[in-house]
Structures are given as structure tokens and as C-alpha cells.
Amino acid sequence: MEQEEDEPYQITLEIVNKRCKGLRMLKVSGIQQYSLSDVRGLPGGLTRHLIRIPSKEIVEIPENMFTKIRSGDKFDGRASAWFDSDGCDVCKTILSNNSFLISGRHVEGYTILYSFVAPSFKAFKNIVSTLDATGLKPRILEVGKFRRKGKILTEKQERVLWLALKMGFFEFPRKINMLELSRRLGVALSTLSEITRRGIRRLLEDHFET
Q1: 24 lies in the same domain as 124
Q2: Residues 72 and 166 in one domain
Q3: What's the predicted TM-score (pTM) here?
Q4: Which of 106, 122, 145 is the endpoint of a domain?
Q5: What is the rounded CA–CA span in Å between residue 145 and residue 126?
Q6: In angstroms, what is the C-alpha Rg of the chain?
Q7: What is the pLDDT of residues 78-126, one digit of tens each?
Q8: What is the separation of C-alpha 37 from the centre of its chain, rounded to a whole number of angstroms?
Q9: Tens digit of each residue's pLDDT (9 = 90 or more) over 42-55
Q10: Residue 18 belongs to domain spanning
Q11: For labelling, which of 48, 80, 148, 177 has a CA lying 20 to 30 Å from the CA of 39?
């Protein structure tokens, strides 16, 4: 049982988050469609958010609200922008439990679906109980636990590649690079590189041999 609790989990929560200054900023600016791609903790208690919104609507928000704006993506017509906030209890709670946000999707009003990876069952339960204690009343929509397939990869390779996949390492553009991933997982960069290289090689050898 102890080993199972140490396995990572992917969780999706529905939260009405009226306290987030960033969400209030978007609502006041008339932005209706947006998603949260990344959050990072900063010195001084600030939280940095990466949002994606339609490129045509980026001009609706004052530029001084953003730390950095990325150009629009020609494939989906959306632009990315970073902004800092000191009033995001949800993101702070996720980050403080050594967890990683996968995405945040706006549903309506102040309702957001937060999907994240927690390193253990204990971290997952602590996030939910902390949010509940602050009155945010998270609604748990989905809980997915890492499960070994045990056929091709070693246990370590399987766990690392599962986390890399969930954290967006294989997306384009990448949501996390190898250095950031190594820090999140608490392993040396050279070790992580070797684990992923050997794991991907095993998968490719199995694929082409069969």
C-alpha cells in the first residue's frame, strides 16, 4: 500500500476561482476563451501564469498586464502571454505540493478545470484538503494513477516517460525542457537523459521488430 501511495497521480478538479486576479483581469477585458498552459512560482510569493487566448483578442488587454507576449500560432490562431499575480490560491497550492499543472481550461464565469500531476496520493489529498479548507470547494472530476505495463520498459523508464508525457515534454512547443523536467523529478540531468534515451530506444526496437 505504501508503494502505491508513492506513485504519481493525474487529477482534474473543477473550481470556481473568483479570487484569482488574473481571471478577473481577463473577465473585465471581455476575454471569453482562454486556457492556462503553465504556472511557476516566483520569489516574493508571486505566481507566473502562461495563458493562451485568440490572437485577435490579445490587443484587448493592456500590455502592462503582461510580463511577456508570444506571437500568435498560425496553426490554431491563438497567442500566448505570461502574467504575474499574487492572488492565486489554486496555483500556489498545486506548486507548494511539488505538483505540476498540465492545463487549466476556462468553462464559464470563474469556473476553471485544473488538470495536474501530483507526485503521490498524499500530495493529491493535501491539495484537495487545503483548497477545501480555504473555501474553494474543489470538485474532483478525474483521478488517474500511474500504472505499470511491465512489458517493454523498466519501472524507472516507464515512470519517467509517463511523467514526461503528462508534463508536456513531447508536445510542440514543449511545455517543459529536459533541465526543468530533471529538477521536477529530482534526478540529475545526465541521469534523466540516459533514462529517456534508453527507454525510447526500447520502445522503438519493440515497434520495428514487431
Answers
A1: yes
A2: no
A3: 0.79
A4: 145
A5: 16
A6: 18
A7: 777 787 877 678 988 999 998 988 889 888 888 999 999 998 999 999 9
A8: 7
A9: 887 788 888 888 77
A10: 2-145
A11: 148
